[in-house]
Structure prediction request, 399 residues.
Amino acid sequence: MKDILIVGAGFGGVWGALSAARLLDKYDCDYVHIILLAPQPELRIRPRFYEPEVHRMFAPLEDLFDTVGIRFIMGTANRIDEQAQTVGYIDETGQQAELHYDRLVLATGSQLVRPNVPGLDTHAFDVDQIESAVRLENHLRSLKDRPCSAARNTVVVAGGGFTGIETATEMPARLKAVLGDDQDIQVIVVDRGPQIGAALGDGIRPSIIEASRHLGIEWVLNATVAAVDENGVTLADGRRIEAATVIWTVGFRASPLTEQLTSVRDAQGRLHVDEHLKVFGQDKVFAAGDVAYAATDDLGNFAVMSCQHAISLGRHAGNNAAADLLGVLPTPYRQPRYVTCLDLGAWGAVFTEGWDRQLKLVKQEAKELKTQINTLWIYPPAADRATALAAADPRIPVA
Prediction:
């Protein structure tokens, strides 16, 4: 018997397991087993964690896995021994345990970087995980019990990238729902960039600027947060912003498990992989999702940390891990089409195509597409064997 071990139940891990199951089913293989190791049997819909009711934003996986023959083990991986071909983990009872693999698909995702900024860990919120986003949600609801003040009505979002913008544009409606429409709400984005939405390019910037004006969002540019306390933030240039709510959205890094493999990593800790998503320097390890530094085409573009790429990376990595054991040809990973759909709160959204982000849809049209993506497209398939396996075909375009 042979084992394919998938570590992680995010988009890359779930689709990797389903894709491996699809190929094994296609070849009527009964000597390869698929095991998925993760802290919980659920796909957490991280792209929506800035929204309200965040505790509902997960999809249970047990029925789906049972339907297609994937064995789920609850635990948190903490060690990879590439020589012994084992993954160590803390099981649900808190004990150290170990799993052997013949092929490993590492899909443990990424995490928010929290630098050594005074007061950050104690006083700042984030939307990186369900638990931290729930903490923010509870905090926002509690604001109504505080005396009215400018600080109570102010949210500072540190970081003007994708997550920061979607979080900031959600905040005016969230605060008004808690405090009332008659309150003077202030949302401030602190960003090190020289322009609004600088990292997202010229195609999207006009929409971000228009949405910010419409929603009353202020940008403080060429600035960084030097310290956070219970009453607000102090910027590196000494300026002070009084705020009861500070949300940190700056920087993501691949799971630290990538550092346990003998391979090459990029600046974000992602493992360099070949066209079949096999990790450089490894014969039995594949990577998918946010831990993989993978070329999407022959033009110099690489997958970004997003569900758009993680789903396709997962389909290819799982398929190719199974193909390796079956002795059949792998499927090269290619994802030349790239889209961006940025939610901009009550203003709407903006949708672009291509790495140069050519504007295609704005406002309500883009908002409808964003809603469809967030509520339908990125959720796993139903627990029907034929449907689930068909959906895991790596040849299916994601974007």
Notes: The longest strand covers residues 70-81. The domain at 120-248 is CATH 3.50.50.60 (FAD/NAD(P)-binding domain).
